Amino acid sequence: MVKIAILDDWQDVARSSAGWSRLAARADLVFFADAFASEDEAARALADFDILLTMRERTPFPESLIRRLPKLRMIGITGASNASLDVEACTRQGVTVCNTTVGGGAPYATAELALGLMIAAARAIPTADRTTRAGGFQRGVPVGIGLAGKTLGVVGLGRLGARLARYALALDMKVVAWSPNLTAAKAGQAGATIVGKSDLMSGSDVISVHMVLSPRSRGLIGPEDIARMKQGAILINTSRGPLVDEAALVAAVKAGKIIAALDVFDKEPLPPDHPFRASDHTVLTPHLGYGVAETWRQFYPQSVENAEAFLDGKAIRVVNAP
């Protein structure tokens, strides 16, 4: 019987987000709720599967892993592309790659989370919640800052960065922006003022990163950038962990210079002993940015459709079609 793995269902939402019964009638479905600890573990666990239905970039699939999956015939990805999947290696091995369509779902969910992280960090909401639940009240809760009149610096003024800029304007914040290819006209369309990178880092009370991770953008926010930040400033990252130099960020957080409000990390899931977990100067969420009910109701039904079509010999949404 065909074996299908549904990977990285970290919130146990896959079963309730789509109808699996027809697919289950023709294949053995196995849901994986936990991340693989290593490539070796992934290779052992997935060696007997014909189809893998993945969730974004949670499990990397480099060529070295794909070669170790001899029975693999199809990989389903969620979203238009997956930077952690070697599509060319799949093609060489005869593995069909199918995606899900862009659009629908919750297009601004990540920007909404960035807004939530900004407010949570500015008003120490996680600490206030823990203190109140533990029987305390205001004692021990840091004094927050108001956001009206403060400056938000947006690194990467694309669809999500521009949306956050509009949220900030509604809070009566000033918005400045920078990215390597940003123009004054595009910044103006989002209500932002274009500035240089160093000026953004030194002049902003809150900085939010909204860039695609690539070899060029890896480490885009480096030690010298973090050193320029104001005392007490907030750095938000809902894009990808490696965009920001983690060692420099850890050092700044440990020193109490800045607050890091993070949804993404260099290694995910975040290791249990990571210093971010123990810091009073962090607000942490477990890569929830795109992960809302509306997104799951798009990703999983289309993943099921992709698998069924492939089994019917009529693959759809094929990324690596001849």
Q: Would you give an account of this structure?
A:
- The protein has 14 helices and twelve strands.
- The protein is α/β, with parallel strands linked by helices and 322 residues long.
- The protein folds into two domains: 2-104 and 292-311, Rossmann fold (3-Layer(aba) Sandwich); 109-284, 3-Layer(aba) Sandwich (Rossmann fold).
- It has a seven-stranded parallel beta sheet, sandwiched between helices. A five-stranded parallel beta sheet has the order 2-1-3-4-5.
- Strand 7, helix 9 and strand 8 (193-194) form a beta-alpha-beta unit.
- The longest helix has 19 residues, at 293-311.
Short description:
With 322 residues, the chain is α/β, with parallel strands linked by helices. Helix content is 35%, strand content 14%. Helix 6 (109-122) crosses helix 8 (159-170).
Describe the structure using short key phrases.
about 325 residues; alpha/beta; Rossmann fold; 14 helices
